[in-house]
Amino acid sequence: MNCFCIATEPSEISIRTNVASLVDYKPVYQVRPGMKTPIIVWRYGKPEIVMAMWGMRSSSAYNTIHMSRVLKGRPWNILIRTQRCAVAANCVIVEKNKEAFLIRLPQHRLFLMGAVYQMKGDEFYYTLLETESPDILATIADDTPLFLQNEQIQKWLQATELDSIFRFADKAGNNYFDYFRVDPKILNPKENNRELLIPIGMTHAEYLMRQKQVMALSFEKERANRRNGK
Q1: Chain segment 145-188, per-residue pLDDT in tens
Q2: What's the domain range around 27?
Q3: Which residues are 128's β-sheet partners?
Q4: What is the Cα–Cα distance from 82 to 76, expressed in whole angstroms?
Q5: What pLDDT, in 10s, does the model give residues 21-40?
Q6: What is the DSSP letter of 206?
Q7: In terms of pTM, does the model score above 0.70?
Q8: Is residue 188 part of a domain?
Q9: Left if phi > 0, otherwise alpha if psi is -120 to 50, otherwise beta: which for 118?
């Protein structure tokens, strides 16, 4: 994953996740490692929204780690048990063959991504967790973030058994994915442009029509995320 977007108002994040605490931040349309974004952690017996920097720092920077690797060494095998967090996002951007693709969950305009975090002094740092892509996204990404639905936040933060934790890493989950090509300029680390989130080759009117069509789908009959239909 190259970057992600979080432009939801802080108060709306609190409402959507049912977490009372608030933070203040400006929308970031292309979040990149080294930037601060809102995350949800479990502290003092309750969930709390804090600002944290994407990318843990040690001898090198860790922006993402695959779930298949977290139990193979420290500090990941400890953090996955004790210091999980959820990162708020509106969409993610991946690169394939020098093309850029936007992935979103239209039934959850604000969704969460699983991560682990550390504190250094009063500062929070996080590393995003990745898992195998659902089949519907396999042509554009080998791996994707661990997508969480907003109502799963309490279970994700409080789970103590590894079996329960790793159940969240199922490659399909219960999500309905939508994706499209966007301008590769979005991959430029200097960009922070809302217009780059628009699909390539669509007029604004066509884009609005697409939005209506996607949101009008009956999610009682979501298209399968797996090729075998399960």
Answers
A1: 999 887 888 899 998 888 888 888 876 556 788 899 999 999 99
A2: 3-221
A3: 64, 115
A4: 10
A5: 778 889 999 999 999 999 99
A6: H
A7: yes
A8: yes
A9: beta
41's enclosing H/E stretch is strand 36-43
**120 vs 110: CA distance, rounded Å:** 28
Any domain includes 228: no
Asked if residue 230 is part of any domain, the answer here is no
Cβ(85)–Cβ(115) under 8 Å? yes
Distance of CA 64 to the CA centre of its chain: 11
Beta-carbon contacts of residue 86 (< 8 Å; ≥ 6 apart): 17, 39, 40, 112, 113, 114, 115, 148, 153, 156, 157
The answer to whether 143 and 169 have CB atoms below 8 angstroms apart is no
Burial 87-121 (b: 16+ CB within 10 A, else e): bbbbbbbbbeeeebbbbbbebbebbbbbbbbbeee
pLDDT in tens, the chain (230 residues): 899 999 999 999 999 888 987 788 899 999 999 999 999 999 989 999 999 999 987 645 689 999 999 998 888 999 999 999 999 999 999 999 999 999 998 877 899 999 999 999 999 999 999 999 988 899 999 999 999 887 888 899 998 888 888 888 876 556 788 899 999 999 999 999 999 998 998 777 877 777 777 666 534 444 444 444 44
Q: 């892509």: which residue's tokens?
A: 133
Q: Does residue 139 form part of some domain? A: yes
